[in-house]
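Regression check, zinc ion case 293:
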Amino acid sequence: MALLGGIEAGGTKFICAVGTDPDNLQAQTRIETTTPDETLGQVVDFFRKQQKIEVIEAIGIGAFGPVGVNPGSEKFGWFLNTPKPGWQQVDFAGRMQRELGVKVGFDTDVNAAALAEHRWGNAQGLENFVYLTVGTGIGGGGMVAGKLIHGLLHPEMGHVLIPHDASADPFEGSCPFHKDCLEGLASGLAMEKRWGKKGIFLPPEHPAWALEAQYLAMGLMNYILTLSPQRIIMGGGVMAQKQLFPMVRAQVRERLNNYLDVPAIMRDIDSYIVPPGLGDKAGLAGAFALAEG
Ligand code: ZN
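Current build output:
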């Protein structure tokens, strides 16, 4: 059976794997995201080692953004002006293709996760949905009319602007491009900078979580009102704090204020805003789905 490769390229780590599908892996490794040369070099080494054992037919990549996702563009598969220091304007997919000699499928990490959730997880049967990850950064992808959202580039849902009451929350925001965009106020990095420790060390009753739920709900309200998703899937390290889900759902309902009279929001919001069905495997599974093309 032909083997596929998957790369979940994140801001802190790259997960690389080889197998027939995400449930049947022959090898997997974790590589720290340091410099492009070091990290991408280690990725190539991993796959070259695997290629000595068996043929790899294609590799799928889901990458943190912004990245070039339009196949016609000369920067297809590149990291563009990412906030990640040192990673701007780096050719990623092209380097994999040249050095490994395989076909490469490429999209954002969140579109990859959305694709996996559509195929195997909590978005099965849906044509319109959003996948949002809230981790070190915030990113969103999803489908409209059954297709992953692309266009000018790809969605950058983490960088939408939301109301920021500086008297209630004097933290100026951590986004190097926009300061207090959603990511600048509500990412894991923003939490750490505002409270002086990582979210994982803040107890569930800490006021950080009510503020976090408020900001995330503002972001979700923008997506609900513009994209009209049938479901919103929220993953990432921050969302692993399970107390957040009920708080975010309650805030979304309160802010929408009965405006959208649909059962999903009025009666069934517990199955409208949900964690990924594939848990933290959605990203890697999505990379495999992209390799299948
Ligand atoms: Zn921003």
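Comparison notes: The mean pLDDT is 96. The longest helix spans residues 207-227. No diff flagged against the previous build.
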